[in-house]
Amino acid sequence: MEARHLRYALALAEHEHFGRAADALGIAQPPLSKQIADLEREVGTRLFDRTRRGVFPTAAGTAFLTRARSALKEMTAASVDAARAARGETGRLRLGFVASALLDPLPDVLGRFGRERPDVRLELHEMATSRSTAALAAGELEVAITLGRPRGAGAEQLVSVPIGHDHLVAVVSSTHPYAGQPSVSVDQLRQQSLIVAPGADEPTVLAGLSTLLGKESPALSGATVARDIHTIVGLAACDVGVGLGPSRMLAAPRRGTWFCEVTPRTPLPDLVLSFSARDRPPVLNAFLDVIRKNCPDVGAALDRWLGPREDRFDGA
Q1: HTH lysR-type domain location, by residue (predicted)?
Q2: From CA 200, how far away is CA 156, in angstroms rounded?
Q3: pLDDT over 90 percentage in the chain
Q4: Which end of the chain has the smaller Cβ count within 10 Å, N or C?
Q5: E-assigned strands of 118-264?
Q6: Who contacts 169 (Cβ-Cβ below 8 Å, separation ≥6)?
Q7: Is the pLDDT of residue 83 over 70?
């Protein structure tokens, strides 16, 4: 039994005449009569009474047509759903990210993606770079935003594109001696109690600070460890010490704090977008399209990996 058999039966029930039904379907009457007869043989009972007044459903036919209407609606809905999923308009996107990405670019990217793809279910997971790399390699995420390029097992199977650049800045309370200064030097930082992100979670950042301050620096070994940049700023506001973090912290000023540049200017690991080089579901392609729109300098890098946009985002 095929969908056309259901359509033929419904058309015949509507027009109550083989000729009129055939005209409505755009086919000749003899093929329609044969298809209805074949359908009745397959069902095992007569579905229509042929009378001089017209063709009318039997009791069995009425029951069959009720189910046929529902079946055709479901088949149409299934086709629509499949087409929407193929365009990345539905489905699930699992994104892992470091906290600093919530300052930029995630607010604009997630806002735009939500407006353009309201029926996509977003699963957002804040996690350290090392954890998100493992999750990508294991297929637990479709995409991740990390500090620095992913390293370790499975990293070679990922496409990684920088989407943001950072340098080191310091944050202090408004009552700290450094408040009001445009910058602080590395020598000054060595004399202070510091607040830093955990090295186990972001080893590339710790390595950079070790190079800057000295591997055996008492200020670094005795530093207060904060979970993320928001905690760094919060502890600095409490005058616990001098917080060190990425320059994107400047996008989240807090009352009672002061930001200083660190001299010499010290680059930090890039904010990097990564995803599997082997498996890119349509919903991921749709997300990458939004990244391209919101981060124009990233578009060329994505095109080098994935090809021109029109070849990748049909209907996007």
Answers
A1: 1-58
A2: 21
A3: 57
A4: N
A5: 120-126, 143-147, 158-173, 183-185, 194-196, 224-225, 242-246, 257-263
A6: 244, 245, 246, 247, 249, 250, 259, 260, 261, 262
A7: yes
> Whats the size of the chain, residue-wise?
316
Residues 179 and 248 occupy one common structural domain? yes
216 and 252 share one domain: yes
Cβ neighbours for 192, distance < 8 A, ≥ 6 positions apart: 219, 241, 242
Q: What would the two tokens of residue 61 be?
A: 């036919």
Task: State the burial class of residue 54 (Cβ atoms within 10 Å of its Cβ: 0-12, 13-18, 19+).
Answer: middle
Run of H or E including 73: helix 59-86
Residues 71 and 168 grouped into a single domain: no
CA 45, 47, 50, 51 dihedral sign is positive
Clarify whether residues 62 and 27 are in a common domain.
Answer: yes
Same-domain status, 170 and 155: no
Distance between CA atoms of 190 and 242, rounded to whole angstroms? 10
11-38 residue pLDDT tens? 999 999 999 999 999 999 999 999 999 9
Q: Give, in order, the Cα–Cα distances in Å from 271 to each of 28, 147, 154, 218, 274.
A: 65, 5, 19, 28, 10
Same domain, yes or no: 116 and 261: no
Q: Tell whether omega for the bond before 105 is within 30 degrees of 0, i.e. cis.
A: yes
